[in-house]
């Protein structure tokens, strides 16, 4: 791995983008190794989709990274953020509260 990378703290998307640009894998080989489509990988990279643990393991295997090294590059904010499903549930709860308060008026 690029030594300067281990000194940085990145979001998951930034890390995946950096790995992709650093190693420049063939899109088909990457998608095949991760058992997903290239567009799904890009959605994860852009923060539009959550990374599963199994896919994280496949990414580490593909790029020949140690899982602990992969995790150590992620920022504390990234590791502490809510999952997308939690964020959506919170948004839904807030919308319901707002609608309920409008009905009372």
Mean pLDDT: 89
Query: What is the approximate shape?
Result: elongated
Helical residues, percent: 55-70%
Strand content: under 5%
Number of strands: 0
Order of helices and strands: HHHHHHH
Number of contiguous helices: 7
Q: Give me the Rg, rounded.
A: 18 Å
Question: N- to C-terminal separation?
Answer: 59 Å
Low-confidence stretches: none
**Coarse structural class:** mainly alpha
The largest β sheet comes out as: none
Q: Can you walk through the features of this model?
A:
- With 105 residues, the chain is mostly helical.
- Helix content is 69%, strand content 0%.
- It contains 7 helices and no strands.
- The chain is elongated.
- The protein starts with 11 loop residues before the first helix and ends with a helix.
- The mean pLDDT is 89.
């Amino acid at each position: 791995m690029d030594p300067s990378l281990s000194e940085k703290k990145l979001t998951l998307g930034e890390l995946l983008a950096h790995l992709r640009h650093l190693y420049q894998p063939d899109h088909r080989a990457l998608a095949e190794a991760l058992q997903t489509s290239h567009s799904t990988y890009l959605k994860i990279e852009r923060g539009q989709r959550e990374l599963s643990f199994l896919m994280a393991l496949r990414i580490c295997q593909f790029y020949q990274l140690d899982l602990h090294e992969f995790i150590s590059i992620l920022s504390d904010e990234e590791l502490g953020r809510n999952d997308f499903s939690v964020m959506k549930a919170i948004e839904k709860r807030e919308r319901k509260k707002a609608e309920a308060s409008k009905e009372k008026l």
